[in-house]
Specification:
Elements lengths: L5 E3 L14 H9 L2 E4 L2 H11 L9 E4 L8 H9 L4 E4 L12 H10 L3 E3 L5 H9 L6 E6 L6 H16 L2 E5 L5 H11 L5 E7 L7 E6 H5 L10 E7 L1
Parallel strand pairs: 1-4, 1-5, 2-3, 2-4, 6-7
Antiparallel strand pairs: 7-10, 8-9, 8-10
């Protein structure tokens, strides 16, 4: 029996933005009977949003998140049995700043076909709307939470941006966004550095705005519990 395939299924970034997922991807998502997901409840909701007729009870879910370690043995079992398996995160594309990369690595080592599907990536959408260098950029994920490590990390990424004319992209847990913004405004140069704040991408409240650090200091937005991407580039 041939190996099953691993399907990387994107989901919307915003609750009402199901139109950001291509119809062919929605159909494929609802055909799969085996899934690794970040949260079962969210995955069920998205599948029902894609197709009200999908029979959720026929789908087997395994969670992969901070509470549940990646069960690579289960993935191997499913793929070796010839089952096509889906991977779905809470929002956007799996395995990019979200769980899933260990599953993809496992499938690659096994020799299974891995199929990534088109869908919204908050990182790329923010970069597109920033006006910053889209050919030289670096995604840093989460910066250190505590000082002085966070301030040091901000100054280091600013230095790299200046030296290489390279866009620096980073994120934070939504409830700590305002704290990160405050630290960035303190650590970065007010005139020589620009900051793009991309918030609620694809939602009705979406905003992608680029200003210098000095300009942001005069009009700080409230980012509390709002999904946000931060991008830094020389002014």
């Amino acid at each position: 029996m041939s190996l099953g395939r691993l399907h990387l299924i994107p989901v919307p970034l915003a609750e009402q933005a199901t139109d950001t997922i291509p119809e062919a991807v929605k159909q494929q998502a609802c055909r799969l009977k085996y899934y690794f997901v970040e949260q079962v409840r969210t995955a069920r909701r998205w599948l029902k949003a894609y197709d009200k007729e999908v029979v959720i009870d026929e789908i087997t879910f395994a969670e992969v998140n901070k509470q549940h370690t990646t069960d690579k043995a289960l993935l191997r079992q499913w793929l070796k049995a010839g089952y096509d398996v889906g991977v779905m995160s809470e929002a956007g594309c799996p395995a990019v700043a979200d769980p899933g990369s260990e599953l993809v690595s496992c499938a690659q080592e096994l020799g299974a076909v891995v199929i990534p599907y088109t869908g919204p990536s908050s990182i790329l959408l923010a970069l597109m709307g920033s006006g910053f260098n889209g050919q030289g950029f670096r995604f840093l994920g989460y910066l250190p939470v505590k000082e002085p490590m966070r301030g040091k990390a901000l100054k280091e990424l600013e230095q790299i941006a200046q030296q290489k004319q390279e866009t620096q992209i980073f994120i934070e847990t939504p409830y700590r966004n305002n704290q990160l913004l405050e630290e960035a405004l303190k650590a970065l140069h007010p005139q020589k550095t620009k900051l793009c704040i991309a918030v609620d991408i694809t939602a009705e409240t979406a905003s992608v705005k680029t200003l210098t650090i000095g300009e942001w200091s005069k009009q700080k937005p409230d980012l509390h519990k709002r999904p946000t991407i931060f991008l830094v580039h020389p002014a």
